[in-house]
Amino acid sequence: MALKLANMFTKKTEISDSSEQLTVGECEIYSISRSKEAYFRYLYPKKTSQKLTVPQKLVINVLKDTLQKKAVRQKTVPRLPSVIPKLLKSLRDPDSSAKHYVSIINKDPVMSAAVLKLANSVYFNPIGRRIDDIEKAVVKLGLDGLRTVLSAAVMQPIIQKDSSYFSQTGQKMWQHCLTCAVACEIIAEHRGIEKFKVYIMGLVHDMGLTTIFSELCKQFEQNQEEAQPGYNAFVPIMKVLGPAVNYWIAKDWELPKDICSALAEQTNIHTGMKVSPYAHILYQANFVSEVYVTLRRKNEEMALGLLKELSLPIDLYDKLDLLSKDV
């Protein structure tokens, strides 16, 4: 049933009304399915052959049903930070000013620290002079840079979910979302498409996977079993239900129509499919972001070959490297 629900969101009524449609191409040297499996193995590297216990099966089956209900998701998924819609709205406001956001940031020490940490990564601050207060961040980053840094800062606590079962998985999932957002931005700039909205799309594109991971961990911990859940407890349901939950959450959050449509198209995206420009960007950005952490360090030549085959900027991985480097 979950698979049918996941597939139903590619109906014509959900697709972007953009007249431009792009064709999804499959890379000959490294398939998207191979990349996806490598990414899940990267997230859940241990106990990959462990069989599920009866209580674990029950938890998974219950979650499949409950996440399909909006009322349950509203209790499970955190609210979208109010600053995100304001930032999206500011794209259409010629009088938009950074001063308002500075006042918001300065009132919240945690947010302020997160903004400064991101602002001092080499990617957001290529000049290299360290930024130690929000006012300087605005001067250095400008309104466009402030939008991206602030969005990441407010979304990180929602996306990064820690777990006693996999100590690094929450951080890995957050890093992937940030990487995907930046890749979306780079590809959009390459194609002459407005960058900030696709950046937000990249940040939120895996909220369904984050939610499934968090809820499974919570339920498994409540059962207090000796058997530790592994790959088989998390990945199959993520593969089947994750894309649909990604879309449902975006709809619940009332994100822009073109973002929701792009996420809807991901639920059944396949080679040869005609998709909207946003969906095509997300497909490619997610693909290269997975390749970035699973293949690039093992086979640099193949990873670069993928960029050429997808007609993407050849320095894309180098730009993603800057996210983890501090000034």
Mean pLDDT: 87
Number of strands: 2
H/E element sequence = HEHHHHHHHHHHHHEHHH
Q: Describe the global form.
A: globular
Distance between the termini: 49 Å
- Please mark out the parts with pLDDT under 50 across 5 or more consecutive residues, or reply none: 1-18
Biggest β-sheet strands, sense, barrel: 2 strands, antiparallel
- Any guess at the CATH architecture? Orthogonal Bundle
Cα radius of gyration in angstroms: 20 Å
CATH fold topology: Hypothetical protein af1432
How many domains is the backbone divided into? 1
CATH top-level class: Mainly Alpha
Strand order of the largest sheet: 1-2
Helix content: 55-70%
Class based on secondary structure composition and strand pairing: mainly alpha
| Helix count from the secondary structure assignment | 16
Strand content: under 5%
